[in-house]
Records
---
Amino acid sequence: MVKAIEIKNLKKTYQKGKANEVDALKCINLNINKGEFIAITGPSGCGKSTLLHSIGCLDGFDEGLYYLNGEDVHSLTNKQLAKIRNKTIGFVLQEHGLLADRLCWENVAIPLQISERNKKTIEGKSKAILMKFGLDEIMNKPPSQISVGQKQRVSIARALACDPDIILCDEPTGSLDSKNAMKIIETLKELNKLGKTIIIVTHNPNIAKECERVLILDEGRFVT
Ligand SMILES: Nc1ncnc2c1ncn2[C@@H]1O[C@H](COP(=O)(O)OP(=O)(O)O)[C@@H](O)[C@H]1O
Ligand SMILES: [Mg+2]
């Protein structure tokens, strides 16, 4: 079966050739099957976000091979990469990143607007996703009027708007108390049961232990 993610000898250096050069990823090998639920942990600065950004095609890398759903990422055009970022991968960050001047459903609508023109369709889809998350009551509110836990759930709804197969979460519970953090994990677990591949970067051992597989990164390499 085609793997969701297959990475061989991936390397990434920031500020290459300068005095402040950093080898953020040294030699990453990673195979992830479709439908896996994986945690990546490791000390601050070990390369977790850099790796997640490379996996999410938000950033390139300097050396190595990366096959996403069997496709060689290196060979893709910018247009194809943009489509992957919109349709194949959903990204959830520590800070929800919701736009303050839009209602919650309008925030969820943003990724849908790239491929859909009909305003009613976009509104219907956005609200349906929020309802699935039990967020009916807040969909017509601006982010300033909802709790931090709700904001993070709206940001997950936004990441899922275009129904991606792969969900990448960079410390998604880092700003939440333990009760809200667990709610996020329950939401991610349900999505995983529906077949989504999930990778979550976390410092929190309670969250890591909820995942099927835990990978530890240290100074740009996986610790075995
Ligand atoms: N844009 C950048 N320019 C230069 N160095 C960076 C940049 N982003 C990250 N780094 C460095 O790369 C290393 C890995 O960073 P990062 O992936 O953010 O780690 P983590 O998410 O595990 O805390 C760190 O040493 C960090 O300082
Ligand atoms: Mg980070």
---
Amino acid sequence: MPLPELFEYQTRTRVVYGPGIVKDIGFEVGKLGGTRAVIVTDRVLRSIGLVDRVVRGLEESGVELAGIYDDVPPNSEVRVVERGAQYARGQGCDVLIAVGGGSVIDTAKGMDVLLTLGGNLLDYQGVGVLNQPLLPLIAVPTTAGTGSEVTLAAVIKDDTSGLKLEFNSPYMMPNVAVLDPELTITLPPMLTAATGMDALTHAIEAYVSNQAEPITDALGIHAIGMIAQALPAAVKNGGDLEARGAMLLAACIAGLSFSNALCGIVHAMAHACGGRYGVPHGVANSILLPYGMEFNLDSCPERFAGIAVAMGAATKRASVQRAARLSVAAVRKLSADIGLPRRLRDVGVKADGIPQLAEDALADAMMISNPRPAELPDVIQLLKQAY
Ligand SMILES: [Fe+2]
């Protein structure tokens, strides 16, 4: 592949990894100068005791727990972020700790914007709007999928329009990501499968993105191989700490890739399905990924051939065209093996809503980095195929 003439790769998140490492979270807070922490999480994670582990880690270090905001739903909304920011401000916190999946971490990012800058969240949507650092944010992912613990992005639903709004700024990258695979072993098989396919979609879309460059390539292709190997094992046996650790790292590595190379048509369509019909993000990606890959196949077949090799579905000696097609088959087989739904009709999408979904997807920022330009009839056709 020819080298790009010019590119920029950016990251800033300190990543710490290890089974049980969440016990050291107070140390991380102290290093950032934090003294009063608000934990952002959801009720399920709190009820199963995961949040308690973070609280104990804080207590042991003498950091004060200023409060816990556990009101975050699976697809976070603007009003949830606003309530959370109001709560955290009232508690006088100087550091936020997000304990959860993508929705929780993205909520904490949005809260951080409002806590630091005030005003209306909607005014900060888009790319590069922020112009100053925010309060310190530590992300503790409890799923292996979103990569939000290292990305500059947050996706938050507008409760009035139903659209998923995107917020992109280097200032939204968490200061620290605490990767503790022990926190993911209670994640049920279907959530493990869906979030894992989200991570795979990040890695694949970043690898074929028109913004890809050698650093994002290295990260993306490595994450693809790790996920193909570890995801079936993590779904089959949630207690497999080795597989859990590999998935947590792979999701993070995919995050480091797509945070710079961005995603494409699959994420654009998945955001639309999530916004209009509440389809879980990973499930939507899993259903749509093979169709998006087929659409993009001819725009960069050598890239898809590389994906097939990374997934163990083709050898380097196979012809590029054949290996490229095998990458799609490998993704279909993986999602079938881990038991995810195969069609949009099975997850609540209505056939007569497809034109609207296609319009939403075309307006999504992720469409810009897709390797092949898409028009409205193309997206309608893809959604019909996946229906
Ligand atoms: Fe995603």
